[in-house]
Amino acid sequence: MRKLVLLSSALMLLNSLSSIAETIHFPEEFVPLQVGERLIEQSFFSRVDDVELAPGTYQVKMKYTDLYEQGYDDHQVVESEPFWVELTVESGKDYDLVFNRASNAVAAEVFAESPQVSLKAKGSELAVPLSIVSYRAASAPVQAVASAPVAATSNKPATAVPVTLPAKVPGGQAGLKNMPNAAAMLEFWWQQASPEERRAFLQKVTN
């Protein structure tokens, strides 16, 4: 009986903590790396697109990485150096990180030198530009939860979902012709993977 009460209390505590956390969704061109002093673990098999934060002000480290077609069966990866932004999360609001995607690799390289991103509350037309800042240690520990995205109506635990690049297709259906093929996307993620993740991937596809 006592164990049942303790278990129920723990579940209530977890539910109360999750209920006050708001979600920030990152587009596939931006990889969240760190919130304050807390690292966000990314992997070759499961990329983190959603980060849950309690209301407050945070410093978030991220990286821009994008893939562009360069003629037939060729592509170019454009990346920025990791950078920090400061953002404020309000209670009861979920957010999207938004930006203006460059139309070609040359423009993307210029963008990568000085990325410009904004935070947009879901359901709002107004996006708040985020300033790039120098990281400073917070006086209190950061409570952040990173998770792979799941459907809003799902009651199942968060699971990894496939990632497709690019996240946006300029020009609607006509833009589909310029999307990277599967081989290009596989090579892109292969370059991002660590040696351990590459070995694990090879073992998985050869078994």
Short description:
With 207 residues, the chain is of the alpha+beta class. The protein has helices at residues 2-19, 105-113, 182-192, 195-206; strands at residues 22-25, 30-35, 38-39, 50-53, 56-69, 75-79, 83-89, 95-98, 117-121, 127-130, 132-133, 144-147.
Q: What are the salient characteristics of this protein?
A:
single chain; 207 residues; alpha+beta; disordered N terminus
Strand content: 25-35%
For the largest beta sheet, what order do the strands appear in spatially? 10-9-8-1-4-12
How confident is the prediction overall: mean pLDDT?
73
Which bin fits the share of residues in helices? 10-25%
Poorly predicted tracts of residues: 2-11, 13-18, 138-143, 147-179
What is the tally of beta strands?
Answer: 12
Radius of gyration: 19 Å
The first-to-last residue Cα distance is: 46 Å
What order do the SSEs take from the amino end to the carboxyl end, as H and E?
A: HEEEEEEEEHEEEEHH
Oligomer: single chain
- Tally of alpha and pi helices: 4
Mind summarizing the main beta sheet?
6 strands, mixed
Q: Helix- and strand-based class?
A: alpha+beta
Mass-distribution shape: globular
